[in-house]
Specification:
TIM Barrel, alpha/beta, Urease, subunit C, domain 1, 23% strand, 2 domains, 16 helices, binds fe (iii) ion, eight-stranded parallel β-sheet, 36% helix, binds N-(iminomethyl)-L-glutamic acid
Length: 414
């Protein structure tokens, strides 16, 4: 089946040369596009693209044609950090926060992550699947084509495996590219308070081996931060994960200069995420590493936190990825278009840098930048056609509206 998208006003984020695995520093401001372009897709993959004039010289005979006059085509967003499997919402805590309680205070009194854990423990696998599936549909309509999903609201071996099995089923049934992460150490359950060491032992002795035995996780995560898990505990858990080939993607430096970033680099993590507390030493540690710093603007916005020093990071030569962190506590939205707008307004990123952050670099941060994240021959045909818009800068500029008209995943219109 050969599909031809023709008369594309501008085909954005193309790679005509050797495809890159990630964009670093100044490269982030480079965005290759083709005006008045075509895109040909065959068997779920990108077969060819270029200016419309080339098509006149060497016509192709598609099974299906789509006229994109006035519209742009972007590679689908990659959302490399989500907690998409959850039960119930937490708007009551949202009001507590408005009244002045901090994220950590809410957590300490059994709200926050523990609140979601209770609900996940009570929910059936089917209920969790149905809710997550709906959220995935919403994400597709908003332009996402790849998503990483974490466990972490289970807190017991049984409930964590239940979450991971839900993610496995989503992988099997959804057209998105999905990666799963075991986040056994997301918080300390009440019954382990004062015995955090024993909880860490349980993650190491039970959760990690069982998730690995069932092949349920691609990555391992730990909430390495003040009030949650220490660097020493994180070291132990990541070492245990490494024995099963689980590469880390950790939560770090959201609440303090916790040492989480250096810890991530030491363990050759694929990414370290949040990073509100990033100083010179942290930037130094990240330079030259294979770890993608990943900023979650939705969480910083929703919790009204300080912002990660993204400008400084890029200017120092780092690549930066951005993801939604979609979860019921700190970022209840899977909208990557909104992340693009926040990137430009709150982090002073250029639209080109922001687009690289939510496509190529976020693909890298979930280990799929060989397959998706740009328009390149041979990559999976994951892209969207916009509504009629004047320019690619309009994407972050016109915040709050859905600019996506039609989404294609593995070449299939959704
Ligand atoms: O990425 N920071 C830690 N974990 C999640 C929040 C989870 C929750 O509050 O439910 C995050 O923001
Ligand atoms: Fe998170």
């Amino acid at each position: 089946m050969l599909t031809l998208i023709k008369n594309i006003k501008e085909l954005v984020q193309v790679e005509t040369g050797q495809p890159k695995l990630r964009a670093m520093g100044k490269e982030m401001a480079q965005l290759e596009t083709i005006k008045n372009a075509y895109l040909a897709v065959e068997d779920g993959k990108i077969k060819a693209f270029g200016p419309m004039q080339e098509l006149g010289a060497a016509p192709i005979y598609p099974d299906r044609e789509v006229d994109a006059t006035g519209r742009m085509v972007f590679p689908s967003f990659c959302d490399s950090h989500t907690h998409l499997v959850y039960a119930g919402s937490r708007e009551i805590e949202y009001c507590d926060k408005i009244r002045g309680l901090s994220y950590e205070e809410i957590a300490r009194r059994g709200g926050g992550i523990l609140n979601s854990a209770k609900r996940v423990q009570e929910a059936s696998e089917q209920e969790l699947y149905d809710d997550a599936r709906q959220r995935l549909e919403q994400m597709i309509a908003l332009g996402s084509g790849a998503v990483e999903i974490k466990s972490g609201y289970g807190m017991t071996v049984e409930a964590e495996m239940k979450m991971l099995r839900v993610i496995r089923r989503l992988k099997e049934t959804s057209p998105l590219v999905i990666k799963s992460t075991l986040l056994g150490a997301h918080g300390v359950p009440m019954e382990y308070r004062g015995r955090q060491n024993e909880f860490v032992d349980m993650v190491i002795d039970k959760m990690i081996p069982q998730a690995a035995a069932e092949g349920l996780a691609d990555f391992i995560d730990v909430f390495c931060d003040q009030g949650f898990f220490t660097v020493e505990e994180t070291d132990r858990m990541l070492e245990a994960g490494a024995k099963y080939g689980l590469r880390p993607k950790i939560h770090a430096n959201e609440l303090a200069y916790s040492g989480g970033i250096q810890c991530a680099v030491r363990h050759n993590a694929l990414s370290c995420d949040h990073l509100e507390y990033t100083g010179d030493a942290e930037i130094e540690a990240l330079l030259g590493s294979e770890t993608m710093p990943t900023v979650l603007p939705g969480a910083a916005f929703f919790l009204n936190m300080v912002h990660a020093p993204v400008r400084k990071m890029i200017d120092a030569g780092l690549g930066v990825a951005m993801a939604s962190d979609c979860n019921p506590g700190s970022s209840p939205s899977p909208n990557m278009q909104l992340i693009l707008s926040m990137a430009c307004v709150n982090y002073r990123m250029l639209p080109e840098e922001a687009i690289n952050a939510v496509t190529l670099n976020s693909a890298y941060a979930m280990g799929v930048s060989r397959e998706v994240g740009t328009i390149a021959v041979g990559k999976s045909a994951n892209f969207f056609i916009t509504k009629p818009i004047p320019s690619y800068e309009y994407m972050p500029y016109a915040y709050g509206e859905n600019k996506v008209e039609r989404a294609f995943l593995a070449g299939q219109e959704q």
